[in-house]
Amino acid sequence: MKTVIIEDEPLAARDLKKLIQQADPQLEIEAVLPGLQAARNWFATHTEPDLLFMDIQLSDGVSFELFNMVRLECPVIFTTAYNEYAIRAFKVNSIDYLLKPIDENELVTALEKFKKLRQQNNLPELKQQLQSLLQDLPLASPAKKYKERLMAHYRNTLVPVQTDQISCLMKEELIYLLTFDNQRMISEFETLEEAEHVLNPSSFFRANRQYIIHMNSIENIRHGFNGKIIVKLKNPISMEIDISREKAASFKDWIN
């Protein structure tokens, strides 16, 4: 059997993929799609899977909107962090959902329910329940919620770090968090793209391939050669970071 994951948070997608592989190694994950548009493009050129995992609230809309974009008849297991109204609807309509952070036992139970329905040939009934749910739920896109704290490794432990205490994120061999009081910790991110996706863009800016900087960490700005901008961070970090000519205009918009 094949499945597809639609999840806009890279860390959540990675964790869900790992849990699915542990719960059922025979369930092949065909694709991990980061949003509605990516899903629309994928389904335009691929047949639908046996099972679909969908986050409810995506960065480019509500996942229910996908059913208005493409014809899907496969069963769905939804995931959600805080949409209580949707959770109540799922319970009424017997649709499976997983509340984040996803519990491994709940995932196993959801997969067992799917397999039972499949064996009993009750998937058409599940489709009808889904259609009823879609009619009852509003499709207004909620505001995207960004992380207010990140987990980091510090002295052999994991500690929460408030995002307003982070001066910058730096990529070396690992992704490091540098705090305003000059603490340096290893983050749980594998790439800066993962961090960029969950940080509030009103506070954080992706300066280049190596750094994401917090607005409050900036001491001064000056122009460099070839249209570059050079940003100096405040003490005690006190480093200079180049912003390329291509990103200069968006940086000026951000800082203003």
Automatic annotation (TrEMBL):
The keyword Nucleotide-binding does not apply. Coiled coil: none annotated. Gene3D superfamilies: 3.40.50.2300, LytTr DNA-binding domain. GO terms for biological process: regulation of DNA-templated transcription. It comes from the Bacteria. The modification 4-aspartylphosphate is found at residue 55. One of its GO terms (molecular function) is phosphorelay response regulator activity. Residues 2-115 form the Response regulatory domain. PROSITE patterns: HTH_LYTTR, RESPONSE_REGULATORY. Pfam families: LytTR, Response_reg. Keywords: DNA-binding, Phosphoprotein. GO terms for cellular component: cytosol; protein-DNA complex. Residues 190-256 form the HTH LytTR-type domain. This is Response regulator transcription factor. It comes from Rhodocytophaga rosea.
